[in-house]
Specification:
Strand content: under 5%
Order of helices and strands: HHH
Distance between the termini: 40 Å
Radius of gyration: 13 Å
Structural class: mainly alpha
Helix content: over 70%
Largest sheet: none
Oligomer: single chain
């Protein structure tokens, strides 16, 4: 993985984590936390989407949407666990 790919990977994770934090109210993890949430969200969506036959295409916008949906799922699960 080149340095450019790593920077894009981190930026997509940060944007996805921030968007997911805005969608799921009450969650703000800061810059590093948003990056981690976005990257884990991308991993979750990467496992879930092919299982249901869903594909968003390619490109940075699709990667951000993909990661954001996965991050929202992650934050929702965290919220469920914290409330119980």
């Amino acid at each position: 993985m080149g340095i450019e790919s790593l920077v894009v990977f981190i930026l997509v994770g940060a944007v996805a984590g921030w968007l997911a934090g805005m969608i799921v109210k009450g969650f703000g993890y800061g810059l590093l936390g948003n990056i981690v949430v976005g990257i884990i969200g991308a991993f979750i969506a990467g496992m879930v989407f092919p299982s249901v036959g869903l594909s968003l295409g390619t490109g940075i916008v699709a990667a951000i949407i993909h990661s954001t949906i996965g991050a929202v799922i992650l934050l929702f699960l965290i919220k469920l666990v914290k409330n119980n």
